[in-house]
Amino acid sequence: MSEKSPPETYGLSESAVFDKISEVVEKYRGCDGCLIQVLHEAQDICGYLPPEVQKFIAKKLDLSLSTVSGVISFYSFFSTSPKAKHSIKICLGTACYVRGGEKIVEAIEKELGVKAGENTPDNKFSFQITRCLGACGLAPVFMVDDDVHQRVTPSAVKDILARY
Amino acid sequence: MIKTLQDIRAAAEEYNSKVSKYEKHVLVCGGGSCISSNCRDVKDTVERLLKEKGLSDKIRLTVTGCAGLCALGPIVIVNPGRIFYVNVDAEKAADIVGEHLAGGKILEKYTYYDSKNGKHIPCADDIPFYKNQVKIALRHCGTVDFESLESALAAGGFEAAYKAIATMRPESVVEEIKKSNLRGRGGAGFPTGLKWEAGLKSRGEKKFIVCNADEGDPGAFMDRSLIEGDPFGLIEGMMIGGFAIGASKGYVYVRAEYPIAVERLESALEASRRAGLLGKDIFGTGFCFDIEIRIGAGAFVCGEETALMASIEGERGEPRQKPPFPFQKGLFGSPTIINNVETFANVPAIIQNGSDWFRSYGTGKSQGTKVFALAGSVVNTGIVEVPMGIKLRELIFDVGGGITGGKKFKAAQIGGPSGGCLTESSLDESIDYDNLIALGAMMGSGGLIVMDEDTCMVDTARFFLDFIQDESCGKCVPCRIGTKRMLEILTRITKGGGRPEDIEELQELSAVIRDTAMCGLGNTSPNPVLSTLRYFKNEYIEHIENKYCPAHVCKALLLYKIIDENCIGCGACTRACPVNAISGTLKKPHLIDTEKCIRCGTCVDKCKFGAIKIV
Amino acid sequence: MKNVNLTINGKAVAVPEGTTILEAAKKIGIHIPTLCYLENVHKYGGCRICVVEVKGAKALVASCMVAASEGMKVETNSERVRKARKLNCELLLSDHPQDCLSCSRSGSCELQTLANSLGLDRARFKGERSPDFIDISPSVTRDAAKCILCRRCVSVCNNIQKVGILNAQNRGFRTIIAPAGGAPLSEVNCTYCGQCVNVCPVNALRETDALAPVWRALADPKKRVVVQTAPAVRVALGEEFGLPAGTPVTGKMASALRALRFDDIFDTNIAADLTIMEEGTELLHRAKAALTEGKAALPMVTSCSPGWVKFVEHEFPDLLGNVSTCKSPHMMLGALAKSYYAQKLGADPGDMFVVSVMPCTAKKFEVTRPEMQANGIRDVDAVLTTRELARMIREAGIDFVNLPDEDFDSPLGISTGAADIFGVTGGVMEAALRTVYELVTGRELPFDGLHVQPICSFDQVRDASIRFEDVLPEYKFLEGFTLNIAVTSGFAGARRLMEEVRGGRSKYHFIEVMGCPGGCIVGGGQPRSADPMVREKRRAGLFSEDERKDLRKSHKSPVAEALYKEFLGSPCGHKSHELLHTHYTERGTFNELIKK
Ligand SMILES: Cc1cc2nc3c(=O)[nH]c(=O)nc-3n(C[C@H](O)[C@H](O)[C@H](O)COP(=O)(O)O)c2cc1C
Ligand code: SF4
Ligand code: SF4
Ligand code: SF4
Ligand code: SF4
Ligand code: SF4
Ligand code: SF4
Ligand code: SF4
Ligand code: SF4
Ligand code: FES
Ligand code: FES
Ligand code: FES
Q1: What CATH architecture does domain B559-614 belong to?
Q2: What's the complex ipTM?
Q3: Are C68 and C21 in contact (CB under 8 A)?
Q4: pLDDT for C428-466, tens place per residue?
Q5: Would you call A94 and B375 a contact, using CB atoms and an 8 Å cutoff?
Q6: First vs last Cα of chain C: how many Å apart?
Q7: C427-441 vs C268-288: helix axis angle to the nearest 10?
Q8: Which CATH architecture best describes the domain A86-162?
Q9: Model's pTM, two decimal places?
Q10: Do B518 and C48 touch (CB under 8 A)?
Q11: How far apart (Å, rounded) are the C-alpha atoms in residues B529 and B547?
Q12: Band of the pLDDT at C413, cuts 50, 70, 90?
């Protein structure tokens, strides 16, 4: 889970990062099909999965690099580019959509001046669309880092973002 | 260590005698929705004040899973009396501690308010939302302490596991489940007993039992609530399943979006292991069983069972051709049985109370209850469990409290992106597996999204296709390219580019995608289109032929018009229009040039006199 | 095994349990169209073209994937089936640049043929297309827009070759088949074996085109254009013109090259003979060092397959010392053409243009290696695949099938049978043994028809032991020595053998490795064939070429003998080191820089 932010790497040297990933791989050694779990933890450590980390994991697990990158690029949870300081995830699941989620998307786009899927130029916010955060009862919702903001209205967006 | 029924009962006894010392019991809902409405503040306040007032050994505080009525969270329930406080915040919590817990005075003004009758209803059991519910799968949700094994044992947990593992043969467990006619709650409704029988009969050195907790269906959060509220119930169900089919290892595949569920399940697994309920020689019978959690990584298709297995194996979550079915060749090539969270949650209750008891709920070929996640434009959004066969009207209007904002009901999407919509005409239909299919929808996992009159059904179909298209794994042609083309056609229609042949092309594509896609995602992907075409064909025709969106949703099809009588000619709209589409002389009614208008809506917001309307 | 009975289009058929519906239909002569499926290579179920109607099944069934079962009633040709196939094909076309008229795959393209045979007469759907980019590596070109995501290449590269370069990246409509992170082939550890190219049904994977420079050289009056052809080409080229697989067309090929106005038509076989002389000598040197000084890099591993060489450089850079230093035969011939032959002609090597016609895509990369040149002049200027030569012949309007047989040109045109079998796995080893055994013992290799039977199959790894007894005096150190040899083709077996070497567990002294599974007869530049017996047929063709020759051992080659006498000196001598040997580069496993 990439629930931890900021990424643990902040302040870690490169070799310390690889040591940590090594520990993760060792922890899963002998456990069948653990690639995705290893990637989760590696992403927790680094904040994202840059090519060097992919190569490191591929070698350690004796997999081809294209297999590892094929898995990473399949799942929307994995990222190969550095995350911004805060990550905004806005839900466009059914419940949120029918309760006007798209208007929230527009409001955020207007507020940040970037489209979904992009980072703000100052790298303060990354902004992504997700499908259901499991808080559908309170639709529409969006998350900033770990905070769920529920029953948002377009006019509330500005204030919420200003808190970060 | 728990080895015998006596051990279970003794632990329950001990727990009960411990809690019987308390005078009152305050339950703070710690379900996902209440967490996002800040129930942590509530809990902290209650905890702090109890301590400050020296009430800690008189009044017990428990954080529970979802209490059901998420719309009104954070929820606090005080026992005795099941006093139901809604929308609690730190301030209200302080009042509740001060007056109710310390003083014994029920704070009616903070309890549930019944707007229909204009009065508060303090006791949960009297609230219409709860009245029609029957809790089997949710039996412990919102009432027990999800963190405490003892609390689960005290509520009767693991007695069924004991009964099955220590006193029954796998064949008879399977037989009991077969007789109950429990059908899979994850989507297709396949009889669980038959599945387990196949699992039991299949040969393999190793077998696996897997719980599908991927819950990718947007707008559904039943499984999340079940795991977060009663992780031990899931563990018990899986133990029984593992025993029945002869598996010694179970996996729970949880989506990554549910970190709290993972955390709670992990801690429940640890507690169960410590108590010897998981591991070697369970109940001294020689049966060995353990469960491992695998976390998904954001792919809806991984809810499909073969894709789920691929994902557990560490691969891209691409489905595999069936047959062979998982019970023949599943996880790591071994026979595997996959069931949904709610399916497992029903199992202990069936084993404990017998299949006849279970069959006394429900209708036709659908026995028992179904958990639904009510969402969308319905008043009581939340988690409910109702007997199969309930009428849609009861579900939406009695349990659900009707449509928000006094709007009109238009449709309910059931079964998620693979499902279909039900309309006004279906309000008195029974909700059960077979009837839903007959209505062109499906039970699905239990997401029920209510839509009001402001919803455009063509746009809704477009929304689902967009979702499907986004989540298609890309393995097979009909789904990878076919759904893309369908989406493009639908998008075109909602943008005003609809062509007369579009409906026929959509139908043709639907038929072939349904007929040739490799997995369930593709097979069912045309359903939202087919079902909206079935009930709302006129809306399509309006969009295509008249370039008109009756619900005023499709932006490109909106016509902005200034109503002369209302317009005072202030010119605010003229100044605001980004494309200078509005003209007029001051103090005279203005006019919108519809050719120029880009339908941005700015003028509507700017007009203080409500003179600009969408027609 | 149990049989199951079913009916297909009303005809009854019994097949062993586990047989797919597709195979069962084939058995009774019912053709079901397929696209992604490739017999023995790839079963994937992605295209949904092979769908059939099975009575009682809710949806149509992919016949290539689903096994026949007892009592099944199958219809392969109902209205519902035909409509579905057509629509899926139409969908494929909607995500495809329909450029057939200017596409080099036209005529041999499986998608084109399919659309045609399904009677597709419209392509209604227009919409977004998959990413359109072209990745040109020295050997293999990827044309993403044309990829239909059948994933045959993925199967070959991952399951058969076990290199794992190509895999699906991204998901859904955005899926592409690409190296990790979508990197170009030239930036990853691709071996350029081209096995992926051979199975691609469309023009999404092809050899990197070398026709233009060749045509240009032919048109340039100042250039002396020398062409050479590898052994495997002669038993495959005919297939491009409709001849049965494995038909030797050596003579027609020589006439076609002449008709194309190449100045000198040489046979790479000559250099294969030289390779044996060089490699055999190298082996004997290493064996001597091992037996007398107790140290030498053994086993020695062959180096004539550039796909294999690149694989070792990436995967076993620590074992490069075990690889023979011999250049691959066509590089040797190129070097000789621009030295020995240029001298003979009195020509400036800079005015010569050497073209190699090869079964191989890896050789296109090989000629660009910096070490493969002398004084800034490349040993070989262009490599054409067998398929490309066929295209040239067609473009020139030559009626290939009716050409007369002609010979290669001298002096680099006469070779032994040992050289012919270089084209098939085990051939180099056999050729080497024919020479080494005879050099050491003075007697002919003791095998029937000179074929070393134990290594003559297509099994992944084969081995044999040869004991030297009654050796000639100068090879005393080998008396009583048992030479353990192994042969493998394809990287899966090679990896296994090399891991043994790395772990110090290898019992072998000499290992032959060919990059392509079966050897150059199925190289990445050979005609694509759907015939599962194609390897056997082409091998038979090469064996017949070998057997029809009087000279079947490299050390009996008069050309080689003359070359050494006139020009090279002795095998592994100074001059041959300069011209015929090379060195290797350590590359990272994933082509990352190796930190030293
Ligand atoms: C695209 C797709 C997504 C699915 N997602 C889920 C899911 O999130 N949870 C679930 O339990 N079943 C899901 N299913 C159904 C499962 O494949 C499977 O049928 C189910 O888990 C079996 O359990 P049951 O018999 O207990 O219902 C999905 C099916 C498809 C085709
Ligand atoms: S139907 Fe869709 S999700 Fe399923 S295998 Fe085919 S492409 Fe993948
Ligand atoms: S909707 Fe926008 S473009 Fe149209 S008239 Fe109003 S302000 Fe102008
Ligand atoms: S803003 Fe309203 S009232 Fe003023 S000119 Fe425009 S339409 Fe008329
Ligand atoms: S790859 Fe085939 S279908 Fe595509 S353009 Fe070329 S010949 Fe035509
Ligand atoms: S088939 Fe038709 S379109 Fe194609 S080249 Fe021939 S005439 Fe032209
Ligand atoms: S050339 Fe060989 S190694 Fe490279 S991608 Fe193709 S099959 Fe794989
Ligand atoms: S490159 Fe060729 S073989 Fe590979 S997936 Fe694409 S079409 Fe198939
Ligand atoms: S086996 Fe032959 S065709 Fe294949 S890479 Fe080696 S030399 Fe080239
Ligand atoms: S649909 Fe938005 S949280 Fe579920
Ligand atoms: S989460 Fe608290 S009521 Fe649902
Ligand atoms: S050939 Fe059967 S699915 Fe492609």
Answers
A1: 2-Layer Sandwich (3.30)
A2: 0.95
A3: yes
A4: 999 999 999 999 999 999 998 889 999 999 999 999 999
A5: yes
A6: 58
A7: 60
A8: 3-Layer(aba) Sandwich (3.40)
A9: 0.95
A10: yes
A11: 19
A12: confident
